[in-house]
Amino acid sequence: WWTYIHGDSTGGGGIYNSGTFSLFDCDISHNTAYTSGTGGGIHHQSGTLMLTRCSIHNNKSGNGLLSCCRAQHGGNGGGIFNESTMTVTNCTVSGNYSGTGTSDEYEEIGGNGGDGAGIYNRGTLNLINSTLCYNTTSLGGNAHDAKGRSGYGGGIYNLAGSILNIKNTILANNKTAVDGEGPDAWGALDSQGYNL
Question: Angle CA(76)–CA(78)–CA(81) in degrees, nearest 5?
Fold first, then answer.
């Protein structure tokens, strides 16, 4: 049983991968991607990643950096940020948070909260026999003129044009902050049966 905890980085607080990698029986928890960083637990940038019998929990993507000149969005993918090919089997993704958006110094414009608290997908993702639960997106930056929206896709956010295949998987009890949309899932997905 492998454990990756209390890491921090601008991308992939626990693990940053850009090759072919397989993880079995692992615990990836309490990691943070700082300064609008993506993938609090895992950032999979390229190649092929396989996760089997792993728990990805209590991770957070980065909050927007307070800036004098412009608002910043919160980081996407509190648990996992995928932009290549990834297969998740017999895993649990729970209790993760996306990053909070910030406003500019004068609070005129607010950045959006990060999307995909559990998983943010912009590649090809296969979810098999897995559970995504109790993940929560964060608020956008408060502002007088243009407040940032809360993050979308509490459980999973699938970017337009990306591929998401789900089989025998539970997506339940995920949340978005205030005005966020798609508490369990946002974007198109291909249900291959036996999902809740």
Answer: 60
Alpha-helical runs (H) found in 47-156: none
Euclidean distance between the first and final Cα of the chain, in Å? 28
- Read off the pLDDT of residues 108-159 as tens digits, 9 standing for 90 and up: 788 899 999 999 999 999 999 999 999 999 999 887 677 889 999 999 999 9
Using CA atoms, how far residue 98 sits from 24, 108, 139, in Å, is: 25, 23, 9
Edge to edge, what strands does the sheet with 124-128 contain?
21-24, 48-52, 85-89, 124-128, 163-167, 190-191
Alpha-carbon distance of 46 to 187, in angstroms, equals: 22
User: CB–CB of 187/158 below 8 Å?
Assistant: yes
For residue range 49-101, list pLDDT tens digits in order.
999 999 999 999 999 877 666 788 999 999 999 999 999 999 999 999 999 99
103 within 8 A of 68, measured Cβ to Cβ: no
Prediction pTM value: 0.93
Q: Can you give the pLDDT at residue 5?
A: 57
The C-alpha R_g of the chain, in whole angstroms, comes to: 16
Q: Taking the C-alpha atoms of 122, 125, 130 and 135 in order, what is their torsion angle to the nearest 10 degrees?
A: 0
Residue among 5, 3, 57, 50 at smallest CA distance from 26? 3
